[in-house]
Amino acid sequence: MQRAAHWTIPKPDKVGALIGALLLYALFALPFATSRANRIVQGEVRGIAEAMPLAWSYLLIAVMSIAIATAFFRTNARFRLGVAMASLAVLAVTIGIAATHLTPAGNSYARVSPASGFWLLAAGLILMATDAITRLRPRPAMKVMLLVLALGVMAATLISGHWDALSILKEYQSRQDIFWIEAGRHVQLAIGSLLAATLAGIPLGILCYKVARLRAGVLNSLNIIQTIPSIALFGLLIAPLGWIAANVPGASALGIRGIGMAPAFVALFLYSLLPVVSNTVVGLDGVSNAVREAARGLGMTAAQRLIKIDFPLALPIILTGIRIVLVQNIGLATIAALIGGGGFGVFVFQGIGQTAMDLVLLGTIPTVVLGFSAAILLDAIIEHNSFNGRSRA
Hints:
It is built from 15 helices and 3 strands. It is 75% helix and 3% strand. It has a 3-stranded antiparallel sheet. The protein is flat. The chain has helices spanning 14-29, 48-51, 54-72, 77-102, 116-136, 140-160, 167-174, 176-210, 212-227, 230-247, 261-285, 289-297, 302-332, 345-354, 357-392; strands spanning 33-36, 44-46, 111-114. By secondary structure, the chain is mostly helical. The model has no long low-confidence stretch (mean pLDDT 85).
């Protein structure tokens, strides 16, 4: 006699329950969009039902309800990821529809912005997707593919013009040329200072590893620099760099000045040294003595052991320091705008001065996306090198 099949209710997921509660609160308790007569005046908040046609509001509520249920119970990680990504897509579509719906026809001064409910829904869905990806434990290549897919969908949405009615896109349209100039400066500051710190920091880290008496002095000095607030360090560099520009022939022609990109670049370079140097020392110090002895027994010289054994095995830890530096520099480069260094901080501080939150977001969102993308790419590189390092060992 066959036993009857019983359907069991999935068990609640602790992390997912928190995400589901966050989504539920954002969906029903917070406004979805804000409409204003112009970019400066106080706006009126709108709930989901008021912000868009009813059919779209019902669709959004239905999709978010599915996402909440999926997050709350223990479900397949791939299914959770699919629901989170689909929900993010619907959320992106509906905020564009809300902007078009709330903007009066022919009115170029009106502004429609995502409100707290939208941002909290987006944050909850991103957390849900991140949690699902963590559970899937994808290979480095898959992480990069997911990042490229997400950036591609975002780029396609921007190019399609679906978000053109949003106030942040209107701010971008009026500053399009300046935006890309400042984006280039931001990348130059972040990556340029990282490259300079890597070229100087790795040899210095190797020297500190080889000469134990030098290690404490160098690391303590770099640690002191790291404790100086960024704005204070920018200010401290203005006077000496200004003196160099005025008294050293050719310095001004090279771009060295008391204000601008030069002090910002030097400050970011100084901040970058400690993670690179310390991680180089830690990485080399962690190489197994047995591996070194085996290499010595094969007749390798000290230089060959460093290049072919020590450095490859220490590379994942060194790359971790470089990852820390890159993400740190992408954020700190925003403050460089205070001394004329340019970057996305130009829009952040202009927006603060004009009480224009959308202008602040125009500088903030690209900085966050850039930092997030850099972190994922370097994480993938670190995981790949860690696997190769274990294979060599």
